[in-house]
Each structure stands twice: as structure tokens, then as C-alpha cells.
Fold these 3 entries.
Entry 1:
Amino acid sequence: MLQSLVIPALTTIQRDLHTSATASTWVVSSLLLSTAIATPILGRLGDMFGRSHMLVISLGALAVGCVVSALASSIGMLIVGRVVQGLGGAAVALSFGIVRDVVEPERVAGSIGFVAAMLAVGAAMGIVLSGPIATGLGYRWLFWLPLIVIVPTTIAAALVIPPSSRLPSVPIDWLGALLLSGWLFCLLFGVSEGPQWGWASSSVMGLLLVAVVLLVIWVRVEWERDEPLVDMQLMRRPALLRVNAASFAMGFAMQATFTFVPRFVQIAPSTGFGLGIRPSRAGLVALPWSVGSTLTGLLLGRLAARYGPKLVLVAGAALSALPFAILALRHDSVWIICLALGVFGTGTGLMA
């Protein structure tokens, strides 16, 4: 929800903090980058010290990040707050692990499907509520209001969730974490600055080249480590490789959709495209995605048990691809966009 709340309000944040469109996109990218790095580290720490303890720490970081972001007076400080919030992104992976620890094996699939459905509900609520909150209260309340929920949730997690089992302590692969941070940052920074600096400029080409070099070094280091941050030997397995590729494609499609569509529908039709929808209502176009994703998420466990996870994943991928074909051909009506996002939500729910 904290990600989807911010996306429709990027234009407002850009205006109020007197920054550029490129800099404002880092309000989104910084959280994703932080989450990508924090998830494997906190996952390893969860194995060592208990997932329930790390979940509480992760939620605590989320709360601190909300406060920093809400009080930020510059785009730089806001990005710092979002990086801290990104540590809370590991709560999703930790939650899945806790479900496997405390739920009976026959109920694990359904429970994980329920958690995935709640993620979809939160994401859609964020997009829908973002416009009214930013317009009526100001964009800072996009961080204050979630804090009201996060604080009691953190307390409840500390008091209610039973302690998780612990595995033998192993050293954290900090070199792997540093290299992962390096190549992801260079890649994202190069891509984000490409339109402004020029894709053929020496700065952009240099950043992309450094990203490639660091990526190669990171893969080599992780391959040779006894306790890597990311197990490359495991990543080689065909089944896992295909699942990770599908997950990457789904994440890419979702982020691109929720970053672009709310902005697109706000553009004035006089420009030749766009629908001229007011910012306070732009997020409503994502509501069909939430409905489709929530319904299929709730049914995911039963569908996987009946038809097998592979068939469900393939069906979800096919349904997720169809809306982009629809939008490529027709995007001049809010009803067509809503229909496409509803189908997209159904597909992503099956791939959760």
C-alpha cells in the first residue's frame, strides 16, 4: 500500500518539493531498490534469530521510514525515508515464512493465497485513496495515515505471533549485498537519467557498463560462496528459473502499469492522448485490478490443489499478457482501461 499510495501523487510531490520528474521517480525506485537488497539479508537474519523477531524489526523500520518521509522538506530527505521504508518490504517474505512455520501443511497454500490477496487489496486501496488524500490533506498524509495502522500492527506482531524456529548461525554475505546494491543502483540510475542526459551520453553508457561489470562480479562471487546471499546454484534449477522469470515479468508489468496508467488518464485530451481525469479520481481506474487480483488470490490455494501450480501459473501469465494487447490497440476510453486492468488483476492473482 505504501508504494501504491505514492505513485499517483508523484506529480503533486514533484510540484510541492520543487524537483524534477526524474528525481521524483526515485521516490518509487528507492523503495524498490531498498526492498530488493533488504529482503535476502533480513531473510537470512530471520533464519538465524527467528522470523517473528525480524518481522517486528522490519515493521519498525517501516514506521520510522513513514515519519522521515512525512517530515521531509526536500526530495533527498524523502528518498532517504523511502529507503528506510524499503526495509519493511522484507515483511512480505518473512510473512510467507511465518505462515509455513505456524500453519498446518494442508492449509499453507490457502493461507499464502490469502496473504497475497491482502497485498492486492492494500495495493489497490493505495491507488484509489492516494488522490483524495493528497488533494484534501496534502501528500505528507500519505505517510502519516499508514503510520496509524503500522504502529499497532507492529505491537500486535510482537505480542501475538509465536517465536519462529532458528537455524544455525552463518555469516552474512555483506560483499554480495554491496555488489547487489551497486549494480542495481547503477542500472536504475542510468535508465532513469537516460532520457535527460541522452542514451548515448558517456555518463549513461558508463553507468550501464559499471552495472554490467558489477553484475558479472556479483554472480561470480555468489557462485563461489559457501553461504551466498543469493544461491546461484539453486537459481540454475529449470523450474525455479522459470518461476523467477515469471515473477520478474509480473513485477515489471505491475510497476510499469501502476506508474504509467494513473498519470496517463490525468493527461488532458487536448494533447492528443489521455482522458483528462481529475487526480482525485485517477486511482479509481485500478479498482478492477484489485477486485480481480483479490478474488483469484483467495481461490489460489484451491485452484493450485485441483489443477496443479504449473497450469495455474501459465494461465495467470496468459491472462496478464492479454490486457497489454488490449491497451496497445485501444486506450481512448476509461471503460476499456478498467476492463484491461480487471483482466490483468485476475492474471496477477493467479501468479501470486
Entry 2:
Amino acid sequence: MRKLSIPLVIIVGLAIASSAFAAASLKVGDKAPAIKVRTWVKGGPISKLEPGKIYVVEFWATWCGPCKQSIPHLTELAKKYKDKVTFIGVSIWERGDVPSFVKSMGDKMDYNVATDADDYMANNWMAAAGERGIPAAFVVGKDGKIQWIGHLMGDLDKVLGQIVAGKYDCAAYAAERAKEQAAEQKRVEVRTEVEGLIKQNKPKEALDKLDKYIAQDADFEMDVVPLKVQLLYQTDEAAGYAYVRKMGEGPFKDNPNALTWLASSIVDEGRKLKAPDYALAVSLGTRAVELSKAQDAYILNRMADIYDRKGDVDKAIESQESAVKVASSDKEWPKEAVDELKARLQELKDKKK
């Protein structure tokens, strides 16, 4: 079966770098690194961070779904704090055409935009601060020091208001962030231990260690759902389906990307499950299609695969035809990806002959 060569959308709302960064050396309260970019695609140039001015330096990429969703919000903030805060969006970890993307966004992306220069910004800002996911934003105060680091859809608006008004407590936030980073470091250690047990072919021990830590740090579970699903399928398939149902009807019930991943995990041939719960996969996938209003070609394509694995070729063809139609009318879908969808559709139709 042909599989669409598009990376799975991340279910936690951030696009994550492939490799883990070392412990943070750049902290809140430190002097901000220099601005070194290759090209100013929109606005600029900004050669340095000038004393007496407030800056938001945001990191994104053309391929990052969460980034695309947050760009209009950043534009709104740029308008709200016009003449008070300078906004800079720097594309990192890039594999797309930044100028074309920025042009296609038009007024929705209305602030200074640049591309990274030989990973300088990615290394000296993101990696140095221990940040692995995008979009991410850094706020630099009038003193040239970093005041805040985080997801721009979070507290950025609130923080900017406090900084502009001169009422922001940087020391309190620095202490809070240090505590969060210590917890994150512990999570990395646990994940490393779990992955080590998996390599030793000890899934039960790996699952036990994972569950014991989740009992101490409940928020960690949202970061390791795919890992826990994998281990449950290996040790107790029925428990795996129960867990997938629990997550699909609970924290991920309104997240179409998460639901699609959960549904796809059930029909993934590579897992070699003994009794795939196709009814559950269809239920989760159908919910994802409904939430996306049947306008997400990737989700429709995965839904076709689910129906195909279930043995309902007619439904699979119907879903794949919808995927082709949606992708063909979406300029962001490259021709080769649309061609893959069409080839998959032909494969399904050939099964009917």
C-alpha cells in the first residue's frame, strides 16, 4: 500500500527538532544574542537590538503547522503594540521556500521576517535556551536582556502588556522557568531510560517506568502518548485500544490531528497487531474528518487507509477522492504530493476490478 510521504502532524501543538538540545546556557535575564540573518524577506533590515527598545524575536518554519496557525496572531500583536515593540520572525530548520510562503500569507504576516544564516539563530538563541519546538518567541527588554521565552500563543500578549507598562517581574518568571526546565530535564532522563529498555526488548519494564513517572508528573503523559500507545500494543493489545479510546474521548477529543494519529496507530501494518479494532479507528477518524470539516487532505487520506484496512474499499475510494479534490485546490500542496494522492486513489479503484 502506498503511503503519503508527508510527516505526521505533531499532536502536541509544537513542531519539534529531531535532536535533543543540551542543558540551557541562555537564560531569562541574560543579555540577548546578536541578530544574524541571511536575508530579510519582509521589513528590516535590523542589524542589532538597540537599547531602549523592546523586541519580540519569534522562530518558525514554512513546514510547521502550529507556526502557520500562530502567524495571524503575531500580526495582531504587532499591530496592537505598534511603535512600542518591534517584531521579528526568523525562519529556522527550513526546508521550504520562505519568500513564496511570506508572499502567500500577505497581510496575515505583517511584521519583519528573515531567514537564518547557517543556523546561527537556531543555535545561539533556540538551542542555547534549551528550546526544541517551534513556534517559540523571545522577548528582549529595553536593557537588551531576555525577559521571557515561550510559545507565542500562550502568555505573550499578557507579558508584553506588563513589560510595556513597566510592571513585569522578570526575576519571578526566571525562577518559574528554571523550575520548569528542571522538570523537563527529568522528563528527558526518563524518556531516555524508557527508550533504552525498548532497545533491550523489555517493553513491560519500559511501560512500568513510564507509568511510574506519569504518576508523579501527570502533564508528562501528553508528551509521551505515542510512546505509551506503542508499549501497550506490545504488551497488552486490548489495553492499548482502551487507552487510545480514553485519549480520543478525553484530552484529544477536539484535536483532529491527534485523533488522526490515534486512529492510524490501529491500522498501521508495521505494528503487526493481532486484532485491530477497526470500529474504533473509524470512529476516531470520522471525528477528525468532522472537526476539520472534511477540508484536510492529509486526514482524508488517512481515513481512506483506515477504510481500506477495514475492508470497505468503497468508503476508502470515497475518502481518497475527497482528499485529491481538497489537495488539488490547495496551493500549499506540492504537485508531487497531489500525484501521490491520485496514485493511491488509482490503487484503491484497481481493487474493485
Entry 3:
Amino acid sequence: MKTCYINSAVSISTQDTFDVEKLVFKPLDYSNSTVKAKYLEFKKFISPIALRRMSSAVKMGVTASQLALSKAEIEVPDAILTGTGMGCIDATETFLEAIIANNEDYLTPTAFIQSTHNTVGAQIALGLKCKSYNNTYVNGAVSFESALLDAKLCIELDEDNSILVGGIDEIGATFSDLQYKNELKDDSEIRLPKSEGAHFFGLSNIKKENSICLKSVEVLHHLKINSIETHAISILKKCGLDEVDAIITGHKNDEFDVYYESLLENTFQNTTQIAYKDVVGDYFTVSGFAVFLAQYMLINQTIPEGLTVKQNKAKPFKTILLYNQEQGQNHSFILISTC
């Protein structure tokens, strides 16, 4: 099988992460239930005529994908694979509100057409005139991982030479607020605000100067707490490894953090441990940001300022394991390394 390389990584998030040389994270504002991404001057990347009909998810996705393709030196990819938890939820809410307001009469189809989950992937393909394999995964908290796994298999089995992979989610004014409130309990601490972002990667079977290797992607719907550490170790062994240099986890300051602690308290207790959701918020495809962060660490050999870090010993970063789960389900493990 061929090796799968990640040749570019681009992120639009609640922090200044788009096309910057040095990452520095600032504390997230917990006073609101939602935090929007730092929007760019999208008109620099998208024509004003097209821009006015695009939702924030499409704007972020198209912009991030353009830079990811440019950095990976890909003109037109052999496949476009995206993951999203809620798609263009803002357009969905607009359409549903119009149904109620107009008593199901005299509805324009525009919002409905723009609300489909594959809108971002379709817009990217239209802009590139790409007629190749195009698929969107909507699998909750493992939507991005599903797209990444598909891309990895396509590269390894020599079905495609270059693939654009991305994870996108936007804030829906109504849904995100309801989702946040539903997770709260009377005696709970302040939870992470809901947020949004777009993270795109250029994958290829060709190694370049700043390439990193995508070693493993695994997704499991159910996994018992006492099996998490064992499963992580088995992933390392499959890749010929005994340890990793860092672990990036999706801690959320809730009762399900025990899943992360079960992984970190024994075999990996002396491994550098990094949490990231406290600086970018939470949404279904936020794990795409974790891959972006890991790629930055492997290339620059440093941990960005502002992250929650437990660093035990200073040594070069060669392998990084990413672990995420959502309310005790949809577990994902991603292993990447230097080449």
C-alpha cells in the first residue's frame, strides 16, 4: 500500500489560525453560549456576486479549501471529501422559520437548496470544475474522521493521487443555543460554548518538504472506559510503535472527561498531554482543528502558547495521537507522525 501524506493544513476557527506563521491562542469568551469564528475578508477569495448567496459555512469552506490546495500544490484534486455535523444549519433554520411564518404557503426554495449538507463540497467542486469523486459524511462527532478515513483508504489503495479533505460546521442561532442549554445541568460548571470552523487538508501519495504521515484513523461508536487505553496501545502496535510523543484530547470539562482520564492516567501518564477545545469551543467537526494543531506541532516542533498542556519531558515531536469522543460515544483515534 502507498503512504498517505498530509501536505497542507488550513484552519479557520475562533482564533487567529488562518495562514499565520506562529500560533498564539487567547482565552475563549465563556460569557455567551456561542462564539463565532474569526471571519476573513472573504471577497479576497470569492467573487462578491457568489459571496452574497453563501452561508458562513460555505464561505469558510471555500476559502480554507483554496489555501489548502495552494499549499499542497494541487490544482484540481482527484477527490473532495468533507465532513459536517449540521451542514448549513443557518439556511435550514431560515427555511423552517419561513414554513412557520407563512403557514407552509408561498415558500421560496433558495434556503432549502442551500441548506443541504453537501453544499460546501459541491461549491468547492463547482469552483474548481472538479467532476471527480465527491462525498460528504454526516456522522455526528466523527463526520470529519469519516472523510479522513475514506481519503486515507483511497490514497493507500492507489485509487487517487491527491485528495482534498475538510471538516466544516457553522453556528445556527437557534439550534446551537438549544444544544448548549440541553447539555447544561443545574449543578454543572460553565460548559464550553458552541462554536464553528472550517479545517481543510491536502492529502497525497507524494511526499513533499513539509509532509507528515497519516498513520492511522479509527472510529468506534461504542467503547467501554476500561478498553480505551488497550485500544490505543493496539493502534500503536499495528503501526510498529511502543509510545507517542504527545496526545491531543478533546476535554470539555464535563462528566465524560473520564474517558480521556482513563487513557492518560497509566501508560501515557508521562506523555505530553494537550487539550484544545477550551480555546476553540465545541462543534461536531472540531477534531479537524486537532489535526491542524498536530501538523503545526510536528513541523514547527513547538506547542503554541495558550493551550492547556501537561508537558512531562522535552523531546522532539515525532508521533502524535489524537483522541476524541462525544458523550461517551463516537470515539475516534488519529495517529500522525513525521516522515
